[in-house]
Amino acid sequence: MISVTVTDKDGVTTTSTFDKVEIMIGRLKDKSNDIVLWAENVQRHHARIVWHDNHLILIHLNCRDTFVNGHKILNPYVLHEGDKIVIGDFTLKVDLVVEPEVAPAKTDATIPKLDPRELARTLPCGSSVDRK
Q1: Do 47 and 97 meet the contact criterion of CB atoms below 8 Å apart?
Q2: For all residues of the chain together, what is the average pLDDT?
Q3: Which segment of 23-27, 56-60, 82-86, 128-132 scores lowest on mean pLDDT?
Q4: Would strands 35-36 and 55-60 be described as parallel, antiparallel, or unpaired?
Q5: Cα 39–45–47 angle (5° rounding)?
Q6: pLDDT of residue 63
Q7: What is the pLDDT of residue 22?
Q8: 9, 14, 123: which is closest to 66 by C-alpha?
Q9: What pLDDT shows up at residue 132?
Q10: List of domains in the chain
């Protein structure tokens, strides 16, 4: 299961647990978003978290900013324990409680076929994050 803790700008915290391989995040309150972040600085479909090849991967979907540990991301990003995701006025913390029991996600063209260690270092403009 995947646990996502969301903290808003007022410090209100909500934790949700999901037993699935893909979690959609956005402003639109409909059946497509699993986590709704109601704020103007969040896109209707802003990002998704995917369980792929034994890694949790954050995929930024729109033009509004998404940050991990203070770095703006545009490319798929392999999440690690303790990573802080910021979307609009919200901070998210993602934890893998137990591996999802559903079938692995199908290979998607939006997820490059890279070694996960390389994918973790990929950020916009060829910059990288030191993961020491």
Answers
A1: no
A2: 81
A3: 128-132
A4: unpaired
A5: 95
A6: 77
A7: 95
A8: 123
A9: 34
A10: 2-99+111-124 (2.60.200.20)
- Which residues in the chain belong to E strands, given as ranges? 2-7, 13-18, 22-26, 35-36, 47-52, 55-60, 66-68, 71-72, 77-78, 85-87, 90-96
From the list 54, 34, 56, the residue with the least C-alpha distance to 45 is 34
Instruction: Find residue 90's DSSP bridge partners.
Output: 87
Phi-psi region of 11 (alpha: psi -120 to 50; beta: other; left: phi over 0): left
Does residue 12 or residue 64 have the better pLDDT? 12
Share of residues in the chain with pLDDT > 90 (%): 61
pLDDT at 9: 95
Q: Is 69 in contact with 128 (CB distance < 8 Å)?
A: no
Tokens of 17: 């647990």
Q: φ and ψ at 121, to 5 degrees? A: -90, -10
Share of the chain above pLDDT 70, in %: 73
